[in-house]
Specification:
The complex is a heterodimer of chains A (about 325) and B (about 100). By secondary structure, chain A is α+β, with helices and mostly antiparallel strands. Chain A has 8 helices and 20 strands. In chain A, about 30% of the residues lie in helices and about 35% in strands. In chain A, helix 3 crosses helix 8 (about 300-315) and helix 6 packs across helix 7 (about 270-285). Classes of the chains: A alpha+beta (about 325), B alpha+beta (about 100).
């Protein structure tokens, strides 16, 4: 590891060929990943030569055709691919990444990088990854955890629109240093549903970053946060059906909630699971956790106000 | 060393290398890295496991627990025997039989 200005994300610095979505000029001491950009056919030939892969994760299209695939081979490492989103070969130790990005819009390749490739590299380089958004409020980094569809990203976008700073959209890369949990800034990609974007005033939208395009969501390239921060609080969002959104309260079964929100659960190598247990245990003992029960009528702008208020109560 | 019937109280135990555990706020989580299975222990049982890993000697663990918690030794002996049986059964500790 060395302290130089580098393109970084998820607690890794990237050298060699360029990848989109990285944060330039990060000065943290970080392990390096060398990047090689290559043609998809070249990568497929390379993978076919040596690999006897095992399929460890697959997400199909709604009609059942394979969409996203993650394969593992003991010697060759990992192959991550998604139709029209790119192909990536990762060395077993995460020190090298060969990438064929899509010719389509930049957000497409970025989605695969942000959702699979960079988190996988992070775990291979001894970071743990939590399924959470990260925002910085008054210099305090807050993680927001929520089941899909609860409004995690929309709430984070509104926190940013109301004056917070982007840290990570969907994945917090964590490590324990000196008994504290540090989080590394995520890939510069922010995804929000169009109906949630409509609820954000123009001035707030400008804070989300450069618009990259639209799929079922609107994609933005926010300004990346320039370095790691200690995690100051973790807020779980839950739609409970109660009449009014309550103030953040205690989290029931924090160990299960933390371990259950580990990102990339298909990565079950013993060394990963042991590190995960250590990081989550430290998190539960040293970082304030709270749960926000959301009433059906409450929208992300109001929730963002509650997040801001809660963040300012934290030490 | 091999798993023992619940009624047999071990004198010494070891925690296998494939078993790791960490304290959380409300419980101790024990992970069997070979099976990928998690197990939860209440704080008292978690402390017993910690001492079993540290001391190995079951009597010494009972004595320490009794001193730390102020609980009568006979009660700690019973609880510790039950815990050891349960952990042995789940493959989370390995026990030497009493001689």
């Amino acid at each position: 590891m060395s302290r130089v200005e580098a393109d970084a994300a998820v607690g890794l610095r990237f050298t060699g060929d360029a990848l989109p979505g990285l944060i330039p000029g990060v000065e943290d001491e970080l392990p390096a990943v060398t990047v090689e950009r290559a043609d998809a056919r070249v990568l497929d030939e390379r993978w076919a030569e040596g690999a006897e892969p095992e399929l460890i994760f697959e997400r199909p299209f709604p009609d059942g055709r394979p969409f996203l695939r993650v394969e593992r081979d003991a010697g060759a490492g990992y192959r991550v691919s998604a139709v029209e989103h790119g192909i990536h070969l990762l060395a077993p130790d995460g020190a090298h990444c060969a990438s064929a990005l899509t010719d389509g819009p930049v957000w497409r390749g970025l989605k695969l990088l942000a959702a699979q490739v960079l988190p996988l590299l992070a775990t291979l380089r001894a970071r743990e990854v939590l399924h959470a958004a990260g925002v910085v409020v008054d210099e305090r980094l807050i993680g927001i955890v929520a089941p899909s569809g609860t409004g995690k990203s929309a709430t984070a976008c509104n926190v940013i629109a109301q004056g917070g700073r982007f840290f990570a959209d969907d994945v917090l890369a964590l490590e324990v240093l000196d008994g504290r949990v540090w989080a590394h800034p995520g890939t510069r990609l922010l995804n929000v549903y169009p109906h949630d974007l409509e609820a954000i005033a123009d001035a707030g939208r400008a804070r989300l970053g450069e618009p990259l395009g639209t799929s079922d969501k609107e994609h933005f390239a926010p300004e990346g946060f320039p370095g790691a921060l200690t995690l100051r609080g973790l807020l779980f969002l839950r739609r409970s059906g109660q009449a009014e959104t309550s103030a953040p309260g205690p989290v029931a079964h924090p160990s299960a909630r933390l371990l259950g929100n580990a990102f990339l659960p298909y990565l079950d190598r013993p060394e990963r699971l042991a590190l995960q247990l250590e990081v989550m245990s430290t998190l539960s003992r040293t970082v304030p956790l709270a749960e926000l029960d959301i009433a059906p009528g409450d929208r992300p702008p109001e929730l963002a106000g509650i997040v801001n208020e809660w963040a300012r109560t934290l030490p | 060393m091999s798993p023992l019937p619940a009624a047999v109280r071990p004198t010494r135990v070891t925690i296998p290398q494939h078993v790791v555990f960490r304290a959380f706020v409300e419980e101790t989580v024990v992970l069997n890295l070979e099976s990928g299975r998690y197990h939860g222990l209440n704080p008292t049982a978690g402390r017993m496991l910690e001492l079993l890993g540290e001391l190995g000697d079951v009597d010494a663990v009972a004595q320490r627990m009794s001193e730390e918690t102020g609980t009568p030794r006979t009660r700690v002996d019973d609880d510790l025997s039950t815990l050891c049986s349960s952990l042995v059964e789940r493959g989370l500790i390995e026990a030497e039989p009493a001689t």
